[in-house]
Amino acid sequence: MTIISSSSAPRVFVNSLPKSGTHLLAKAAKTFGYQDYFTSDFTLPIKRENFPRFLNHRQAINASGNTVSSAENNTIGIGSLHLHPVTASDLQDWLEIVPENNYIQGHIPENTVFNQLLQTLNYRHLIIIRDPRAVIASLVPFVNNAKNTLFKAHFLGDDFLKMSLEERFDFILTGGYAEQAQLQVKSFKAVYQSFYQWRDHSNCLLLKFEDLIGEQGGGEQEAQYNAITKIAQHLEIEFDDVKSHAKHLFDPTVRTFRIGKIDSWKETLAPELVAKLTRYCEPLCHQMGYTL
Predict the structure, then answer these.
(1) Where are the domains of the chain?
(2) Residue 193 CB-density burial (10 A; 0-12 exposed, 13-18 middle, 19+ buried)
(3) Which of 248, 252, 269, 270 lies closest to 260 in space, CA to CA?
(4) At what angle do helices 165-174 and 188-196 cross, to 10 degrees?
(5) What is the pLDDT of residues 143-188, one digit of tens each?
(6) For residue 45, what are the contacts with CB-CB under 8 A and spacing of at least 6?
(7) pLDDT of 61-116, one tens digit each?
(8) Nearest to 192 by CA among 15, 18, 13
(9) Short-list 259, 19, 233, CA closest to 225
(10) What angle do CA 226, 261, 289 make, to 5 degrees?
(11) Residue 209 backbone dihedrals phi, psi, to 5 degrees
């Protein structure tokens, strides 16, 4: 395993469009010697029990409450389907406390203020996206099963209980007001684009799930090796054996792993749903180079 040199970036933000391979990308960072802030056991001199270990919608609310308005200046939206606004100063406190040689995971769409904050704190930024149809196919059942994987219901769980399967997919596609959660949800196209826009920032490396997953997940070995090499270059880490890193990436034991195969979503959905997702996602697929 590669040992991080003192000249490497001391911390990494592992970002993702949810259900796109969050833990796959985190595992890649771990193979280069980074530790997971979510599970790290260490002592800090300040009250860290109020600080989120994962920068997602739920933990951001728990840490900051509901007192911040998205209309305020220098706020950063955390989440995907619905963004919880956090002040830049709060987020800076959360990021500063992360120890060196650790990575912190999260879901944060493109945001200029956040980009500047990462640069100021000398974070390297990695983000992973996936075929949009596969993301939706994984997200809908995840909303219902979140309690089984994260020990707490998804914020859309109660709304989904009142919907048929087709209505759940339609709601994710179009967005709208979730009555039980009392939150406005963005359309999936808006969500996907907001994460894909990170590609325009030079200090952020955007990767495809399909490139990083490798042969065990239905991908290609060469694409995986190229993706791993890009990660090492972005983190300014020298390494010799790409094969040793690749063999540790595919891990079906992580808590939110579902299937982890590139085209498995086509086998789990009815043909009419596959057709609906393909029609809806056609512009996004063309933009990202995915075959319909």
Answers:
(1) 11-288
(2) middle
(3) 252
(4) 50
(5) 988 765 555 789 999 999 999 999 999 999 999 999 999 999 999 9
(6) none
(7) 988 876 666 556 679 999 999 999 999 999 999 999 898 899 999 999 999 999 99
(8) 18
(9) 233
(10) 55
(11) -55, -45
**Residues 6 or more apart in contact with residue 91 via CB below 8 angstroms:** 55, 76, 78, 114, 117
**pTM, full prediction:** 0.89
CA distance 115 to 152: 30
What is the average pLDDT value for the chain, to the nearest integer? 87
CA dist 40 and 163 (Å) reads: 39
> CA 23 from chain center: how many Å?
8
**DSSP 8-state code for residue 48:** -
Give the integer Cα–Cα distance in Å for 6 and 237. 10
Tokens of 210: 């399909």
Could you please state the CATH topology (level 3) that the domain comprising 11-288 is classified under. Rossmann fold (3.40.50)
Kindly report, residue by residue over 116-146, the tens digit of the pLDDT: 999 999 999 999 999 999 999 999 999 988 7
Task: Please name which of 172, 137, 170 lies closest in space to residue 156, comparing C-alpha atoms.
Answer: 172
